[in-house]
Design brief:
Blueprint: E1 12-16, E2 23-27, E3 39-43, E4 49-54, E5 60-65, E6 71-75, E7 79-83, E8 89-94, H1 98-102, E9 104-112, E10 115-122, E11 127-130, E12 138-140, E13 153-159, E14 162-169, E15 172-176, E16 181-184, E17 196-201, E18 207-212, E19 216-221, E20 229-231, E21 238-242, E22 251-255, E23 259-262, E24 267-269, E25 275-278, E26 283-286, E27 291-294, H2 299-305, H3 312-324, H4 329-339, H5 343-356, H6 360-374, H7 383-399, H8 409-415, H9 417-426, H10 430-439, H11 448-459, H12 467-478, H13 486-495, H14 499-506, H15 512-521, H16 525-535, H17 538-551, H18 554-562, H19 565-578, H20 580-590, H21 593-606, H22 610-626, H23 630-653, H24 662-671, H25 675-684, H26 689-702, H27 706-715, H28 723-731, H29 735-740, H30 747-757, H31 760-770, H32 773-782, H33 788-803
Antiparallel strand pairs: 1-2, 2-3, 3-4, 5-6, 6-7, 7-8, 9-10, 10-11, 11-12, 13-14, 14-15, 15-16, 17-18, 18-19, 19-20, 21-22, 22-23, 23-24, 25-26, 26-27
Helix pairs in contact: 2-3, 3-4, 3-5, 3-6, 5-6, 5-7, 6-7, 9-10, 10-11, 11-12, 12-14, 13-14, 15-16, 16-17, 19-20, 20-21, 21-22, 22-23, 24-25, 24-26, 26-28, 28-30, 30-31, 31-32, 31-33, 32-33
Length: about 800
Amino acid sequence: MFWSLRDGLGDSLVAAAPYGGPIALLREPLRRSPSTRPQLEIYSASGASIASFPWKSGPVVHLGWSVNDELLCVQEDGTVLIYDLFGSFKRHFSMGQEVVQSQVLEAKVFHSPYGTGVAIVTGSSRFTLATNIEDLKLRRLPEVPGLQGQPSCWAVLTQDRQTKVLVSSGPELYVLDNTSCTAVYPPGLSPQAGSIVHMSVSFSYKYLALFTETGRLWTGFSLPLQLPVCLLTFEPVYLSRCRRPRSQQPSVVLMWDRLLLVVGSSRFPLEDQSVLVGELDGVRIIGSISQELLQEVPLVCQDIFKIASMAPGALLLEAHREYEKSSQKADEYLREIKEQNVLGDAVRQCVEAAAHEYDPDTQKALMRAASFGKCFLTEFSPDQFVTTCRELRVLNAVRESSVGMPLTHTQFKQMTLQVLIDRLVYRQFYPLAIEVCRYLKIPDYQGVSRVLKHWASCKVQQKDLTDEAIARAVCAKVGDSPGVSYSDVAAKAYECGRPELAIKLLDFEARSGEQVPLLLKMKRSQLALSKAVESGDTDLVYTVVTYLKNEMNRGDFFMTLRNQPVALSLYRQFCKLQEPQTLKDLFNQDDDHQELGNFYVTSSYRDKRLEGRLAQLQSAVDEYNKAKNDFAAKATEEEMRLLRFQRKLDDEKGAGLLGLSLQATMEALMSLGLHKQAEQLYRDFRVPDKRYWWLKLTSLAEKEQWEELEKFSKSKKSPIGYLAFVEVCMKNNNRHEAKKYVSKVTPEQKVKAHLAVGDLEGAADAAIERRNESEMGAVLSRCSASDRLLMDKLNRARVATAKK
């Protein structure tokens, strides 16, 4: 151990985290003198100092570690203070107000399927339980009958997602749950055994050990209580469970002042006062000078290394040793293994035994023996061999005293590789964590990138470096690593009170969607808006604009948007659909008379009352005049005249014209037979002659007013020609009327007119007269077999035309 404890572990609170975790030490925890405060020290499992600081809070009753390697300090007043591995205070919570008066007599930190829990017993002999400190819900358990003051011993049991407390009150034993207090009687433990003074639960909470004042030891399953009894003659000061996961013989370890006893096995003298820490596959013995792991020797190691062993693995190991000596005995051992047909088993035994060994030289000897045996196997999967080699290299690296994580292979497999990397990262062994990730070829987003992200988050907390230096260092190290978000690192910098550093880091973030939310949180609205516009993401721009609208007064908001034309344009589109009045205010702010005029015109269509619509249009005319847009002003005035005209006709004739366009109004008037009024609109609004003639022609033909149509055609020369009359008449199925206008058609359109009315001879004569081959071809295409004479006539004309 690296530490130097002159006074040993006496008069100290000691807590060690499982899986080779850190050790917390608080000397003289109940000292109350303000001049000399207790010192809280945190060490790695190898005794290397991690943190040390004077304890300035209240008297501490118990220390414990969470599943996340956070240190929990339970005080007499029921307050639980939580520190990280480096001694930085994180948060605190209370175990209830009633605890403040009655004080905490004893506390325990335990691990359950829900997370890390805390259990306490108060001066009023009541138990309070919290099964998960991350989601704190306090449970006050029922009273224990006849219990006065502190119980002689108690333990927390967790099974099947249920947490209970086992309490000893004299010779009686009770199980407390949420609603009841139940007396239990361990089978085989007679009343003459006396009061239970010590109890211990196994690492898995499956087994329980009880020790009585008369020296009797009872071991069995924790729930329900069963199994036989074992006798002892001395009272231990510490009791723990020791069991290898696949062993059929769970053991109990008892410790006196300078003696350690494994029940049913051996006694071990201790050099100084020590602390026992239960592990998954053994017991850690922590002393002031050294730390040891007591565990059952794995069966495979026993088979290989016991004296005169004839196990396949032992023979293979011996064969390899003789091979290295260039001895022919190697061949004899190999022959013996092959004759028994157990060479594959021998290789597997050597690999498995190497995984359980701590000494690198022994590991190498076993793995070389396994490699030697593999050479003589034709069908043997190398996966186990390769995996074990890699795992041993990782385990040897973390077992180094500079790292201080003495994990066994069994603990490593239970912990999983991801948790091991998390612990290395949490302890800031970043180079080692990165090397492990690369060596084991873990995907970047699960390995190297995750390590770099944590490193960068710690880097921004260094107060001795400038913002520029930190930003350059983070960019150089992280680069474009997948899975590392600069915005997350920048958020950490902002939380640490370094906003300028956060902005510099955000410049390296490629995704604008990650930059903008943090900039808004930092109150850098202008920069956030610029980043959103640069991204080209309209949804992101709308998000920033909405935030600015809610945070700024209207004048400043409009002035901000004026500096960002893209954002202003998007906001105008939004207002057109959602907030028309805001759009009007925006145009007023900018003195944009043209857009104000457009706004009034658009608004007029939403007004159901004519007076309101006319008022809106008049406002539009005023704005167009201010904008010097004479065309728009005149068009709007004509719209107002049309509305008044429509309203007048609606009142007089009930025509229902209000809101129609000029052309639709004229069509409606003609369909109602109000030709004079339609003609009035034609003159007043200077409707083009061609449009008016088309409207009237169509209207008269649809109403089959053929006499009126003929009079209309003779009123003056048609601006649309007379082919239109022919086509409209034919469209309305009146060939007779259509023929009246064929003669008026111009020579260029004669053929089309004759064809329209089905007069092939007339069309042929017109085409021949004009000597137009394309027109002759058009007539020929319409001829049938019965028109042979006409076809000959046209063909002769085409030939004659071609000769000329």
